[in-house]
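Long-time lurker, first post. I've been practising inverse folding by hand and with some scripts of my own, and I keep getting stuck on stretches where the structure tokens seem ambiguous. Below is the full token string for one chain I'm working on. Before anyone asks, I'm not after the true native sequence, just a reasonable design that respects the backbone. If someone could post their per-position residues I'd love to compare against what I wrote down in my notebook.
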């Protein structure tokens, strides 16, 4: 299984609590080496329409949810984020990113390519706030089912998330993704998974 029994129990116990961003923080930002050749096919990602968000670390999920809801972290129940948020992303050729979730809420972001790194981009909310903004680097993808992004957030902390063509990924793919995350220095105890069981996703 992807999540250990202890992690599942911890998630259940904290489901009624507010989000704790401080406890979810990862290592400070570190340099992501440029790939020898570009990995990421942006045209493929744009063609997906709906990009699911099934695996990530806690801080990336918490930041994305906090920004979409426009609430303070302690006002957001942990359980609602994991089971009711139904977060998805849409990517557009002009660099616009759109997050959707929590029963119809949307949040628009702008992005621009990172100079000197074809697999990197800088992103920020269209309204100019910076609750969820920073730099993203695609460090692993098959350009068919998923792409892994490591993020250096505006607050100076690292995060990561996976975009995928489907709500779930195979156990074999999850294993490879988590091994990759660990190889970059991310902590296993912060790995988490979003559930789409009760979601009705619109295009």
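-- Answer (accepted) --
I ran through it position by position. Result:
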């Amino acid at each position: 299984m992807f999540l250990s029994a202890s992690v599942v129990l911890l998630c259940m116990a904290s489901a009624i609590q507010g989000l704790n961003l401080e406890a979810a923080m990862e290592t400070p930002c570190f340099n992501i080496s440029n790939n020898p050749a570009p990995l990421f096919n942006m045209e493929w990602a744009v063609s997906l329409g709906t990009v699911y968000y099934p695996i990530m670390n806690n801080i990336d999920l918490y930041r994305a949810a906090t920004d979409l809801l426009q609430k303070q972290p302690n006002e957001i129940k942990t359980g609602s984020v994991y089971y009711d948020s139904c977060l998805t992303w849409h990517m557009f050729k002009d660099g616009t990113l759109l997050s959707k979730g929590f029963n119809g809420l949307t949040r628009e972001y702008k992005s621009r390519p990172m100079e000197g790194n074809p697999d990197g981009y800088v992103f920020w909310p269209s309204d100019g706030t910076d609750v969820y903004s920073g730099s993203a680097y695609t460090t692993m993808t098959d350009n068919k089912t998923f792409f892994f992004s490591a993020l250096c957030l505006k607050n100076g902390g690292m995060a990561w998330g996976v975009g995928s063509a489907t709500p779930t990924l195979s156990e074999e793919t999850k294993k490879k993704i988590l091994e990759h995350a660990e190889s970059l220095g991310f902590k296993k105890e912060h790995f988490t998974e979003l559930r789409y069981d009760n979601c009705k996703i619109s295009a």
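A couple of notes from the structure itself: The radius of gyration is 16 Å. The domain at 42-193 is CATH 2.40.128.20 (Lipocalin). Happy to go over any region you disagree with.
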